[in-house]
Amino acid sequence: MPEGDERQDAHDVDPSVFRAPIGTHDVLPPDSEGWIEVVATFARRARRFGYGLVVTPVFEHLEVFQRVGASTDVVRKEMYEFDDKGGRRLALRPEGTAPVVRAYVQHRPAVPWKVWYLAPHFRYERPQRGRYRQHWQLGAEVMGVDDPDVDVEVIALAHGFYRDLGLERIRLLLNSMGDAASRPAYVAALRAYLLDHGGSFGEEFRARVEQNPLRLLDAKRPEWQDVIERAPQLTEYLSDASAAHFEQVQQGLRALGIGYELTPRLVRGFDYYTATTFEFVSDSLDAAQNALGGGGRYDQLAEDMGGPPTPSIGFGVGIERVLIARAAEPGDRRPSGSRLDAFVIDAIGDGAATLLAAELREAGLAADRAYGGRSVKAQWKLADRSGARYAVMLGRREAEHDAVAIKDLRDPAGTQRELPRRELAGWLQARREDARHETPGADW
Ligand code: AMP
After folding, report:
1. In a mutational test of the pocket of ligand 1, which residue from 121, 165, 272, 280 has the highest number of ligand atoms less than 8 Å from its CB?
2. What is the pLDDT of residues 120-131, one digit of tens each?
3. What pTM was estimated for this model as a whole?
C-alpha cells in the first residue's frame, strides 16, 4: 500500500484526541513565569536550609506505593498502574514520600538525609479547579532524626516559602498522630465509639470503621458530622514520649513566631504518618481544595521498606494550588516586571542583530530579536509585543559613531535616545537592578 494511503485525511482526525487528557493541563508562557518563580523560591529556600535536590523516577514498582497505605483512596482507587512490556507491575507516582524513602533504603546515605524534590504526581481523581489527574508537588524530607527541632525546621521551611511568595491568608493546622505505643489504644477507642454511635449510618460507614477508623475523622458526609465531631481525640491518648515531643514542636514554633491551630481531627491522607502532622490551608481557596500543602512524621516507613529504623518527616506542596491561591490573594503580588531586558531592532542587516543580541546575552541580559529579515516597522511591532523593557535599534546613522538608539517600551510617549554601544550592556544592567527593587523575587 502506498505510504500516503495510511495517513488519515485531516478531516478524519478526532480533535478530542489532540488535546491534553482530562484532568491535565499545559503550562505556557507567560503563565509559566509564575511557575518558575514558585520553583525557584522553593529551591533557594531549601538550599539555605541545607537540603539537596533528589530526583527519582516517575514510576516505581507498585509495592513502593502500596506501602504508603492500603486503606487510602490514593492507593486503592486513584493509582495509574500498568504492566510494562517485561511484565513488571508499575505505577506512576501518586505521592512524593514513598519514592524518596525507597531511594534512601536503596542508597543508604548518611543521616540526617535532607532532600527536596520537584515532581509530577498522578491520581485518577474527579477533576475540578485545584484538583487534577496530574499535578506537581515541591516537597522536602528529612530522614534519620527524631529531634522535634527537625519538625520545627521543616514546618518553618514551608511557612517561609509561602511567606516569600506573598501568601498571607494561610493557616497552619497542627496535630499529633501519636506513636506505636499510643495509637492502638486510640484506634480501639475510636472504633468502639463510632460503631456505638454510628450504628444507623449503614454498611459503608461500618466497613470504613472496620478498615481504618482514623480515615473517618476527615470524612465529609454531612450526616456523619455530629458523631465524628464528638469522637474521642487522639491527643488525649498520646504516650508520655509522644506528648513531650508534640509539646516541644509547639514550643519551637512559638519561639519562631509561627502561629498554628491545634486540629485534633487532622489525619491526612496516608497511613504512614506518626507523631507530628500538619497542613497549610489558604482562606483564598474553596474549602474543598483549600490545602496548599502538608506533611508529617513517618517514623516507620523506611523499616517497612526493608531499611534500618529511620525516624523521618517531610511535606509536599501543590504548585497549582499555590498559584491559584496567589492569584486570589487581595494584594496579588505576582511580579509584573518584564523578563526581557531588550529587544534588538536591526536597520542595518549583515548579521548586526545576531552580534548585538549575542553580546547582550553573554553580558547576562535577556535579549530577543526578530528573524527572517523583517522590515524595521515590523520589528518595532514585534518589540512592542515582546514585553521587553527597552528596544535597542541598530541604525546606520548611529552606527557611524558606534552608537545605538534606545527606547523605553513602557513609556508610550518616550523618545529615543542615543548611547555609545560599549556602554549599552552596563546601562541595561543598571536599569535591571532598579527593576528588581520594584519586583522582589524577580531575580531567580
Ligand atoms: P498530599 O500528597 O495528598 O498530601 O497533597 C499535598 C498537596 O498537593 C496538597 O496540599 C495539594 O496542595 C496538592 N494536591 C494533592 N492532590 C492534588 C490534585 N489532585 N490536584 C492538585 N493538587 C493536589
Report:
1. 121
2. 999 999 999 999
3. 0.89
